[in-house]
């Protein structure tokens, strides 16, 4: 079976050109001048449209147990929603909870995902209990399981938290086996004090979730993580869901010094704010409770994050997709913001929301593709199988229509959520056609994807490090 995507404008980090893309079975087999390739079993006309590598969302949490409930998207619903939005690979987080074995946590995650995914998927491993067994398991995961990155938490004491000694040991292990350490950088013990004091004062509304997680405690933790990584002989360090200007400055300083320090941000920090969303009247703001929290619009965070995307101090945009319904899930925190499950859903909208940055002239077309696909592939050991329109790469292709319009709403999205964090947003651009390993998942507004098409991807070590 061959498939030809003809006459499209192919966009990659190194440039933009008009070409025909020929696919045989699951792979891209040729890029030719327009019109040179004549026959194919299926022909897709991409004239006037962009042809980009399928989106890679390097940070999702399908079915994550959290705060007495679980994220509302299963691997089946969440990966279908991702496909609708032009994302053809997710990297989810398998979870070791404190007191559990890493291998049990990983097996549980494979059981949730296997046979259910519409698109390809890989795992990072969350370490919620760094001890001798967990450190040994890190080698096995890297060498045998295709899991080459590990997330640690400086936040959430009693749940996922690691102290500085545990973090240092895990970093030293990663330095030895070549893995990447991903860090949730917020000072959890200090936040817990602020949360308790706020509740004592009767400050229970959702906005206090943000107020008790001040930017300074993200900046402090980011700085500490960078120092610990330096002590661990410059272990590669990746700061997840970076939201604060001060934390960005710490990352930029380390990068300017030539350190192996990287960071991602998420669309919610580029578009949404403490006052306008988390501070919505009544309990409404619970929809936007996530950690790190949305930041104040009266400070420069949003503007600085867009700049960081331009300067490459922020390398990647992921969603941190962790949806909870308002009814019955977010509502667990009525009268006590600390009981609101943390997370925002957005896996369906990342490609569009970042394209809006191109329309608004905040980032270039090439940078759009780099931050949503190519760099995640390189950073997390999937390149060049993923993240490129290139001969030999998987035929994960999105045709994107710059003349289309995307209206975001709970009424039309495909995520298993009873609200949208971006309700009413209108994007000047639209996902037109989505292809995963040569199979057309979305075309002419019709969805053809199926659970079980998506395969687990064993990852190599990062090819992004110097
Ligand atoms: O609020 C968030 N981010 N929930 C998901 C878990 C995490 O910390 O990434
Ligand atoms: Zn986190
Ligand atoms: Zn710099
Ligand atoms: Zn997360």
TrEMBL record:
Q: Which UniProt keywords apply?
A: Hydrolase, Metal-binding
Alphabetical list of CDD domains matching this protein:
D-HYD
Instruction: Note the InterPro entries from the entry.
Output: Amidohydro-rel (IPR006680), Hydantoinase/dihydroPyrase (IPR011778), Metal-dep_hydrolase_composite (IPR011059), Metal_Hydrolase (IPR032466), Metallo-dep_Hydrolases_sf (IPR050378)
**Start and end residues of each Amidohydrolase-related domain:** 50-440
Task: Identify the domain of life.
Answer: Bacteria
Q: Name one Pfam family in it.
A: Amidohydro_1
Q: Which family does it belong to?
A: Belongs to the metallo-dependent hydrolases superfamily. Hydantoinase/dihydropyrimidinase family.
| Protein name (database record) | Dihydropyrimidinase
* Native species: Actinocorallia longicatena
- Protein encoded by which gene: hydA
